[in-house]
Q: What sequence folds into this?
């Protein structure tokens, strides 16, 4: 046993959880690794899905529309809250 390890009276040397394979996750880009021995599930639709330009624009437009709708609700609620506070005080 290394000298820098702290000795405990109740330590019997058993390993409860092996933490040797644990590493710090990347902070910016996550890595999705397969577990050891795990096989990728077989799926009949494993081919690459290609979107046309009009489909891609429709997806982007729908996402932006949803973001703008939710953002406008929060902006209006914030405006009304500030307006209410300025009229009361």
A:
């Amino acid at each position: 046993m290394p000298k820098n390890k702290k000795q405990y009276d109740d330590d019997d040397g058993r390993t409860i959880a092996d933490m040797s394979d644990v590493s710090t996750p990347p902070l910016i880009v996550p890595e999705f690794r397969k577990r050891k021995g795990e096989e990728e599930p077989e799926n009949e639709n494993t081919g690459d899905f290609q979107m046309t330009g009009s489909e891609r624009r429709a997806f982007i437009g729908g996402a932006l529309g949803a973001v703008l709708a939710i953002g406008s609700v929060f902006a209006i609620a914030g405006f009304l809250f500030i307006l209410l506070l300025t009229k009361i005080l």
In short: The mean pLDDT is 81. Residues 53-88 form the longest helix (36 residues).
